[in-house]
Design goal:
This protein is mainly alpha-helical and 438 residues long. It has one domain (5-437). The chain is 75% helix and 2% strand. It has a two-stranded antiparallel ribbon. It has a two-stranded antiparallel ribbon with strand order 3-4. The longest helix is centred in the last third of the chain and has 54 residues, at 274-327. It is elongated, with a radius of gyration of 27 Å.
């Protein structure tokens, strides 16, 4: 039986059996939330998938329209306008992430194949306990990092969720001009609806649909974060394994020599033996192939992640700038200060996590360069020395993730985002001071 177009597209032409194998592991590794970003869709529930997809498209289209329109008519209240801008930016970011992953579904499948099957496995058979220790440390780090998006969502949800209650307790009156423009303050997020929401039933339905939409956006962002954490930690792990394999190259070569020739490995004084140098050559070639596969894996991931990271940092810059302005404004309600403090915290922590992981990959690439430079190659024959130079040359370029393929993402980039937002705050304050002096 011929595979459906869905299988052929999402499996990159590998077939149903391979797609289902990778899908099962991907859902286990990346959590079932990967479905929300449009990859590894189930093939045995086509009807349910179509219903969910059609409903999500309708909800996204509806709220994209009304949130964008509300941004236009809510300019009389800067605080509310800033809040709507934040929600609208997240909404467009969610749409953008879904679109990127849907368009690059085949690349994501190939990337996950490498993730599942391993970037490279050393054929000489030597597995040092350090390798397993590195894997255990990587898994422990991933478990901690995955808690970060959940913590961010929890803190932000509490901060934003408290706002309607605090407004009600403090009897905050909505801006009259906004009510004239049709902004509905019965909604959890004040927006313009094209219909009346007068009775309790209509308000309940309206807010339930809004919560469903918010859940779609939040799950999309969390799923993208988990994907980023898993794959970037895998790149970091592979580089760490490569570094340790280079540090242990003498031990690997002696083990290979004993297994291949059945002889006692030479001492350090006799490392120039031809057969032993052949073993050194084999180990170095394995390291070169491993490094080439890491570069390929990194470039595949970077091509997928770069647009999403760029969109996330763009959103972060906008939200940080507006949030700092609102928090530092005079006569701002405590509910607005709490809500914007939560959103600023969320955006900063998310940008910090991405920058830190990219910085970690870059730092380990420097460790790889130092490991190659520190090889005891003095007694090796000429062709092995050339292999060392080949590896050394390949490690000169640092591996950093990038945004839209333009800017490298590291802790310096994170600092630049914060400085840009702070500069925007200073510019607004300076403008207000000039207006007061006139």
């Amino acid at each position: 039986m011929e595979d459906s177009w869905l299988i052929r597209y999402f499996s990159a032409g590998t077939g149903r059996q391979e797609y289902e194998r990778i899908q099962a592991v991907a859902i286990k590794e990346f959590t079932p939330l990967v479905v929300f970003v449009g990859v590894f869709l189930p093939t045995d529930r086509t009807v349910l998938l179509c219903i969910f997809g059609f409903t999500s498209i309708l909800v996204y289209s509806f709220y994209t329209t009304i949130f964008t329109y509300t941004c236009i008519v809510a300019t009389d209240d800067f605080v509310l306008w800033s809040e709507i801008i934040h929600h609208t930016s997240l909404m467009y970011l969610g749409v953008f992430i879904r679109t990127v992953f849907m368009l690059k579904a085949q690349d994501m499948f190939i990337l996950t194949q490498d993730y599942v099957d391993g970037v490279y496995n050393y054929e000489e058979g030597y597995v040092d306990p350090i390798f397993q220790e590195l894997k255990d440390k990587s898994r422990a780090l991933q478990r901690k990092l995955i808690m970060l998006p959940l913590f961010i969502v929890a803190v932000t949800g509490m901060a934003i969720g408290l706002k309607p209650y605090l407004d009600y307790v403090n009897e905050v009156e909505p801006h009259p001009d906004l009510m004239k423009n049709g902004v509905n303050f019965n909604s959890l997020v004040p927006v313009v609806y094209p219909f009346e929401n007068a009775n309790t039933y209509q308000v309940l339905v309206m807010n339930c649909v809004l919560l469903y939409f918010a859940l779609l956006v939040i799950l999309t962002v969390i799923a993208a974060d988990i994907l980023f954490i898993r794959v970037s930690c895998r790149i970091s792990l592979e580089i760490a394994i490569l570094v340790e394999s280079l540090n242990l190259i003498g031990k690997r070569a002696r083990r290979l020599y004993a297994r291949k020739y059945g002889l006692k490995p030479p001492s350090k004084k006799n490392e120039d033996w031809p057969l032993y140098q052949d073993c050194i050559s084999t180990c170095l070639k394995e390291n070169i192939v491993h490094h080439q596969n890491i570069i390929k894996f990194y470039e595949s991931f970077s091509a997928i992640a770069a647009p999403a990271i760029g969109g996330g940092f763009f959103t972060c810059t906008i939200v940080l700038g507006l949030g700092m302005i609102v928090v530092n404004m005079d006569n701002v309600n405590i509910s607005d200060q709490i809500a914007f403090t939560g959103t600023v915290f969320a955006e900063m922590m998310n940008a910090f996590m991405i920058s830190w992981m990219s910085e970690k990959i870059g730092e380990q690439n420097y460790e790889l360069y130092n490991a190659v430079y520190g090889l005891k190659w003095f007694k090796w024959r000429r062709d092995n020395k050339k292999l060392v130079i080949t590896i050394l040359d390949g490690t000169r370029e640092p591996l950093f993730l990038n945004a839209f393929g333009l800017a490298k993402i590291n802790m310096e980039a994170f600092g630049s985002v914060v400085n840009t937002a702070y500069s925007f705050l200073n510019l607004v304050n300076a403008s207000e001071t000039l207006e007061e002096k006139k």
